[in-house]
Amino acid sequence: MWIYLSICIVLTLFYAVIMAIYLHSWKNTKAFSSSIEFPLPSVSIVIPVRNEELHIEQLIKDILAQDYPAHLIEIIIVDDHSEDKTPEIVRRFQNDNIHLISLDQYLKDQGVSTAYKKKAIEAGVQSAKGQLIMTTDGDCHVSKQWINSMVNIWHSSGAKLLTGAVVMTETDTFFKKFQSLDFLGMMGITAAMLNLKIYNMANGANLLYEKSAFESVNGFSGIHHLASGDDMLLMYKIAQKYDGAVAYAKHPDAVVYTKTMSTLKDFLQQRFRWTAKSKDYQDQRMTWILGTVFLFVFSLVVNFIAAFFGKTFLYLFLAQIIIKIISDYRLLKCTAQYYGRGDLMKSFFSSQILHIVYIVFVGSLGNLLKFEWKGRSQTK
Asked: CA torsion sign, 202 to 354 to 28 to 43?
């Protein structure tokens, strides 16, 4: 009994400490300026797409409306075997700076692959003329300051690779508010991790890297067999090659916007896909952190159930849940307010229940079950 109680206390203290470290590191992540004058580089926006007929037109319009010199931007859409009108919509744009690449054609000389997104990005980078590569997803949209902000931060930071924030926009239901708030927490932790020089979190929907850096690490060579990881695994390779020359683009304009998952199934599939990446973390510190956080949340659930059989477990559960609420609230409030989404904190307390349930469920099964991604079944 005392051994179990001691373990729970240690797990709880660990959670409180790691969340405090995240918060401190987020606050100390440098917020870069986006108004520095220097010779602007050419930029290639690589967008791998599959069945994005509902979104791709608006994304292209967003990029064409950027406050960055149009002659320095090229848009490369790589169609990953779409079964809808995505390629047709792209072809409607009569613009010499918009290029459509067929992944099917590219793969004819590459052999069979399950890492379709990596191959799509690889195809786009190979044909890119820009000094800088920026990637996003076909179902996202961006403000007109996106490219300018990211490029200025790249110049100011001296980084070879930047990862920026991705913010979810839909908040008309509790489920969508939960996703949006949870995602903002991930942005704060991503920034904190990079500030701590732990290179295991990034988002391919908002990446910038030098084309020469991508080529110098041989792109996705060595990680082609993995279906995902086009973001954090590439980041790790570049960080190792260039002694940590990666950074988080902390600026309110350096943001990509996306929608929430519309159904619980889609949400779980997304989180199963993210969890599957954990098996391939190169830096084991993140593996230990995630594992310990999972054990803490699992112990919280166990103590909640055991509370019906003894006051000791009830008091332990109450102590744990109070510490979790305080720790989570402090970090989420900071990140939500920074990105102008302080309104989401109204759903914080009710979101805690769902947060606990999904961590235990996804953490337990994420490395065991197959996940579906863009209509394809994957295991990792």
From this structure: positive
